[in-house]
Amino acid sequence: MPFHLSVSQGGYTPVISVIVDGQEVAAGFYTRLIKATIRDEAGQTSDQLTVDLDDAGNAIAIPPPKAKISVSLGYKETGLVTVGIYELQSVSLRGSVDGGETMVLQASAADLKKALKGQDREAFEGKTVREIVETIARRNGLRATVDPEIGDIKIPYKARIDSSEIDFLTTLGDEVGAVIKPMGGRLVAARKGNAKAVSGVSLPPIVIEREDCSEWEIDPEGRAQYGKVKAAWIDQKTGKRRVEKAETGLEGPDFVVRAPLPSKEQAEKWAQAEARRLTRNTGSGSFSLAGRPEAQAEADVIAGSSFRDGIAGTWRADAVEHEFSKDGYTTKVEVKALEDGSSGKTEDK
Q1: Which of 56, 69, 72, 174 could form a disulfide linkage to 80, CB 3.0–4.6 angstroms apart?
Q2: How would DSSP label each residue in 198-213?
Q3: Which SS3 state, helix, strand or coil, does residue 289 take?
Q4: Predicted local confidence at residue 329, as pLDDT
Q5: Using CA atoms, how far apart are residues 301 and 242, in angstroms rounded to an integer?
Q6: Is there a contact between 50 and 22 (Cβ–Cβ < 8 Å)?
């Protein structure tokens, strides 16, 4: 049975459910739970689960290697949301004379297939991003889901030399401004920063007002600004170096991509992706609030009018961290500015 806390948060009762290899954990697991932390990050990073348990008396059985752990969070009054399915990576047994003993479970998103980590060599010539992703997905027993905005980009030549498939796909994604990673039984390629899950499904916005937060911290200015991005490519017909440009909409010096790209299309996509990334660095921060199980990285974050200028507006969730403990259920939402740099800025009237 899911575990209900005895404490109430704003009239709601926090609930957690942990399932290991298809079986709900025993009640004793929950009574020894110190905290469970789930971190969901935008981009290529694999989602992480950390579970801290009180191991007094060594009564907890050590989970089997590579155990599948499903975690659901929510409230008794509104129901549970499955926040992730993870594969156990390591178990740490810790203790001290004065501090007692603990067991720490570390797990990562279960969809990082072992086959995708194998070292090998291969080359793709004159293939589109969709064709490359579908080829790798097929041989790993995954279904391919490719964003139409990047699927038709043709790659003149791309070699994988003694690198893993996941590293190869990560590099390819960076070159075309996409996130490419396995999840939910699929190998998914989606454009970076489009307020969608990597699966391509639109994410509900995270709406936050002052009264929702225990604390917040926003840097509305962020890092140094750049006016445009320049990415070079080599014209195979003439042998000349060409340059593609992408505007950030901000004022500042040019940002130059160091290595030349294989084609005009890839240079354009890389410049556009870098422009979006640099624009998002113009503001950042975080909001800490009562648990929001539906909150996910990549979603829009709407800071309401109860916040001052510089905070109120729409941001993008760069990471979401859920923490469940005997003290309650909290969510920390880390944000960056939107791709147009408008976050936290009000229009002149």
Answers
A1: 72
A2: TTSPBPPPEEE-GGGE
A3: strand
A4: 97
A5: 38
A6: no
Decide if 91 contacts 62 (C-beta within 8 A). yes
* Residue 114: C-alpha distances to residues 50, 109, 111, 117, 164 (Å): 21, 12, 9, 5, 10
* Nearest CA among 178, 176, 326, 187 for reference residue 264: 176
- Is the per-residue pLDDT at 284 higher than 60? yes
CA distances from 147 to 20, 165, 205 (A): 33, 19, 21
Q: How far apart are alpha carbons 102 and 49 in whole angstroms?
A: 16
pLDDT at 349: 37
The pLDDT score that the predictor gives to residue 343 is 66
Query: How high is the mean pLDDT of the chain?
Result: 86
**CA-closest candidate to residue 176, choices 196, 156, 205, 206:** 156
CA 262 to chain centre: 28
Provide the 8-state DSSP code for 105.
E
| Cα–Cα distance, 57 to 242 (Å, whole number) | 68
Lowest-pLDDT range of 156-165, 195-204, 271-280:
195-204
Structure tokens at 198: 């990597």
The tokens of 300 are what? 């829009």
Query: CA-CA distance, 50 to 41, in Å (whole number)?
Result: 14
Bridge partners of 233, per DSSP, are 242, 261
Instruction: Name all contacts of 25-32 with Cβ < 8 Å and 24+ positions apart.
Output: 27/1, 27/3, 28/59, 28/60, 29/53, 29/60, 30/3, 32/56, 32/59, 32/60
DSSP letters, 134-161, are HHHHHHTT-EEEE-HHHHT-EEEEEEEE
Task: From 73, 12, 3, 63, select the one nearest 33 (Cα to Cα).
Answer: 3
C-alpha to C-alpha distance for 82 and 293, rounded to whole angstroms: 8
